[in-house]
Amino acid sequence: MKAVASHQYHGVRPPSPTPATKISIPVSAGGGAEAALLGKGRYKAWALVAIALLALWSMFAASVTLRWSSGDLAAVPWDLSSPLLDDLDPLDGTGRSRTVQGAVDMVPAGNTRRVKILVRPGVYREKVTVPITKPFVSLIGMGTGRTVITWNARASDIDATGHQVGTFYSASFAVEADYFCASHITFENSAPAAPPGAVGMQAVALRLSGDKTMLYRCRILGTQDTLFDNIGRHYLYNCDIQGSIDFIFGNARSLYQGCALHAVATSYGAIAASQRSSASDESGFSFVGCRLTGSGMLYLGRAWGRYARVVYAFCDLGGIVVPQGWSDWGDRARTKTVMFGEYKCKGPGASSRQRVPWARALTYEEVRPFLGRDYINGEQWLRL
User: Fold this and answer.
1) Can you tell me the mean pLDDT for 2-27?
2) Which of 22, 74, 181, 237 has most Cβ atoms within 10 angstroms of its Cβ?
3) Would you say 123 and 150 are in contact if contact means Cβ atoms under 8 Å apart?
């Protein structure tokens, strides 16, 4: 996203995961046990007990069964109707992998069924890519404090061809496939924080380049350029995202609902950098009911693209927000084309008295399209 300079490559080969960690790969079972139980009148009471036990089981296991219908529509990402199966490989029903990438590799190319990858507790030190040929993958951790995928690449690292990897390929975990789900997992880039004025220090923890992606109760940790929200429609619910400079950036159309945004800046920084480049571009970031905490002094958003679009609604903004609120990326012409807005936010960082004049205090009618899952066409692919 920004200029880079040479830096010695420091990520050669990941150590093996903790020996005790395992990844089991179940395929969704058909049928709806919950609906079947409730359909038999005399067993309704027992059905309710069974469903409650399933929910309790899912809580203690720190994971839920995810089932997504084949095809493009009617996704059901959080479904307790079928139990999670251990040790079931999508090809022959037997295998386990000791790495996350190994588990992803076992998903057949052109897959059309929801494949659930259960990631056992452990710290997985590896770079992982879910390629475009492998949609419908669900990654289920055992809690953000117990299941961690981490690597330490930076944009200025040198690859095998002698070239810098760049921001795009610095990601510890990259999603290029559609219909990806993740829950109860930490994605981390553990590269050291960039000192003031340094270049080539962008270090992406998670890159989302597929369409129709959902993250639930995930933690995304880094400093500069933590979450590359690249392209596609994405829904992040109850997630924790940490960074310092532009730590949510890209050209996606994404809804962040109930997320905790935690800054670790030592001086100045920014939360969101939208790359929206035209008035007809439907991309932008909507933060609804989120909470901003941390250190440093941060802009709510920066105009990476000439038509950047970022909205905060019903958010709790800590005292680390710069009074001006927003940055034009050093290009005054962008103040005429960006859409930076706030609606009914609270907290010490929500004061509008010194906001830049080209930011908008939105009305309900103006903010309404950004408030719900309709913003990401969720009615077509996402049902909770």
Assistant:
1) 33
2) 181
3) yes
89, 225, 229, 316: the catalytic one is 225
Annotation says 87 is catalytic: no
310 lies in a domain?
Answer: yes
- Residue 184: the pLDDT is 97
**What is the 3-class SS of 267-318, one letter each residue?**
EEEEEEEECCCCCCCCCEEEEECCEEEEEEEEEEEECCCCCCEEEEECCEEC
Q: What is the pLDDT of residue 81?
A: 34
Q: What is the mean pLDDT of residues 322-337?
A: 97
Q: Does residue 332 lie in a domain region?
A: yes
Choose, from 79, 89, 229, 246, the residue flagged as catalytic: 246
267-299: pLDDT as tens digits: 999 999 999 999 999 999 999 999 999 999 999
Domain of residue 199, CATH code: 2.160.20.10
Count of helix runs (H) and strand runs (E) in the chain: 5, 26
Contact 346, 38 (CB under 8 A): no
Report how far apart, in Å, the C-alpha atoms of 240 and of each of 22, 65, 271 are: 25, 22, 13
- Give the DSSP letter string of 34-83: HHHHHTSGGGHHHHHHHHHHHHHHHHHHT-------SSSS----S--SSP
Residue reference for tokens 């905490």: 293
| Segments forming the whole domain that contains residue 97 | 23-381
Q: Does the reported pTM lie above 0.90?
A: no
Q: Which residues have a Cβ under 8 Å from the Cβ of 127 and sit 6 or more positions away?
A: 11, 14, 101, 151, 153, 171, 172, 173, 174
User: How many domains is the chain built from?
Assistant: 1
Is 246 marked active-site? yes
